[in-house]
Amino acid sequence: MPAMTPSEFREARQSLGLTMRQLAKILDIDDRTIRRFEASPGSSTARNPNPIACQVLRWLQSGELKLKDRS
């Protein structure tokens, strides 16, 4: 499955009710990396969203992967 665009990545994260920091913790990456994944393509700090990170978001959205209670 192809990687997401920055806006698709942001929308997926937001649909799950996750902050950038929460998603970064789940993926075990720095939250600045999430900001770069979601940056506009013309931005000097933009990076294409990592395909593995995109797949994790898809699994979370589909329910194939569940998060432990975050409370």
Question: Mind explaining what this structure looks like?
Answer:
- The chain has helices at residues 6-15, 20-27, 31-38, 51-62.
- The model has no long low-confidence stretch (mean pLDDT 91).
- The radius of gyration is 12 Å and the shape is globular.
- It has four helices and no strands.
- The protein has one domain (6-62): 434 Repressor (Amino-terminal Domain), CATH 1.10.260.
- α1 packs parallel to α4 (51-62) and α2 crosses α3 (31-38).
- It is mainly α and 71 residues long.
Offer a quick outline of the entry.
The protein is an all-alpha fold and 71 residues long. It has helices at 6-15, 20-27, 31-38, 51-62.
Task: Report how far apart the termini are.
Answer: 32 Å
- Compute the number of helices: 4
Largest β-sheet summary: none
Beta-strand level of the residues, as a percent range? under 5%
Strand-pairing-aware structural class: mainly alpha
What is the 3D shape? globular
**Radius of gyration, in angstroms, nearest whole number:** 12 Å
CATH topology: 434 Repressor (Amino-terminal Domain)
Topology:
Blueprint: H1 6-15, H2 20-27, H3 31-38, H4 51-62
What descriptive keywords fit this protein?
single chain; 71 residues; mainly alpha; 434 Repressor (Amino-terminal Domain); 4 helices; 0% strand
